[in-house]
Amino acid sequence: MTFRLDGFDTDAFVAATLAEDLGEGGDITSAAVIPADARFAGVMDTREPIVVAGLGLAEAFFRALDAEATIVPMVKDGDAVPAGTDLMRIEGSARAMLTAERCALNTMQHLSGIATLTRHYVEAIADTGATLLDTRKTIPGLRRLEKYATRVGGAQNHRMGLWDAAMIKDNHVAVAGGIAAAVRRAVAAGIARIIVEVDTLDQIAPALEGGATHLLLDNMAPDMLARAVSMIGGRVPSEASGGVRLDTIRAIAETGVTYISVGRLTQSAPAADIGLDFTLM
Fold this sequence. Notes:
Layout: H1 10-22, H2 28-33, E1 39-46, E2 50-51, H3 55-65, E3 70-73, E4 80-81, E5 86-93, H4 94-124, E6 131-133, H5 143-153, E7 166-168, H6 170-176, H7 179-188, E8 194-198, H8 204-210, E9 214-218, H9 222-232, E10 238-241, H10 249-253, E11 259-261, H11 264-267, E12 274-278
Parallel strand pairs: 6-11, 7-8, 8-9, 9-10, 10-11
Antiparallel strand pairs: 1-5, 1-12, 2-4, 3-5
Helix pairs in contact: 1-3, 3-4, 4-5, 7-8
């Protein structure tokens, strides 16, 4: 299983992550305790219900240290599995498998945690017509992976970065001298996607008149969101954002917004409980 992701260098990530763990001295525990010719067979499993994400990347860590290892995935990314499910069976050099174990598990736990939380949010707005989006609230250096995990969980990606759409927020408006002026400048710059954050209803008209292609409705209660959606009238997509929780997202979705963005998908998702256990050869 080869892990490929646009804009992401799997080999470089694996090498850098292993190098961080190995330092200058290497895995001194395995080198001292495990005979060089010892073999290891084990099963990676989940101790809680999860949505699987990062399986191919976990495999890459083991293969980086033992290219001849036998690795058999038992599930695939995107699968929702119950506690106790075997995710992957591995067999190879004991030193290599034990050295790669923590890096592989850390990655799987983090990405599966994001995918699992995302799936809960997606299920909470089922049949409302609203689409869940992630945000740029990601760990530096891990954005591509974390946004991959949200897709696995069923969300769509918002902006990947500062380069693929303009997002005019309150500080931009303050410096530019108003919403209309800020939007007009973005239009004049030839930017195709212009997202404008509005936090009051009276900001909607100037944003649309200026040329906004998407309105982000920031920290609005459901009744105010419904009024905003009515005022927009389908002319551009609408997005609810700010303080969205699992227990509030359904009411937000039912206001008719096109999108709901949730920062906590990547900012606050707990790691999934995944382990690797030795099995008899």
